[in-house]
Amino acid sequence: MDTKEELSIKETIYSSVLEGIFSCEYKPGQVLNEKELMVRYHCSKSPVREALVSLCNDNVLRNIPRYGYEILRLTREDVEDMIQFRYLLEGGMLKTCIRLITPVQLEKLRRLNEESMAATDVWRHWENNANFHLQLIAFSRNECAYHELKRILDRLKRAYAQFYWSKWDASVTPLDTKNHAVIIESLEAKDTGKFLDALKNDLKDFGNICCDICEVF
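Request: output the structure for the sequence above.
Response:
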């Protein structure tokens, strides 16, 4: 097996384990075993171990020597820390560019919001909601900020799976998008204060969904 092929298998295993966590196939606290993954993916130990080490580096797993790799459980405090960081990141970046946002850009946000509200599948709802916020921060044209938000959203997706997905009800409008319309209105009016308030409420609603009562703000 050449290096490129091993790398491809490693990436496949990495992505598959993450998707297993998102879909709740793998639960927090569950221990993954190298040998079981080698059998599942019909490969040698090297790409399996590399994938698992990468997941440890990304704080998804914890290596327990001579035992396996434990799936880390996200806590309420973890969620609150990430929400607070998101508020500072998204709010801070939008403050620098709010007066430059165009009607065409706002229309993109409206479409993303409509798609998120209409989603009847929890996966699709999450992706549309995440894309709404990624589109927001993209207005700043700061690639570092965009990729940092993407990283945090990937981690929060695990929290969404852990705390909320089993409670998903497609007949009820999700609470974590109800402030999107106000966010769009505030951007259209170039009202920074109103935008920051709406963003804070939006992120707090997400925290309440995951942790019952979010006290980060």
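Residues 186 and 193 are 8 Å apart (CA to CA).
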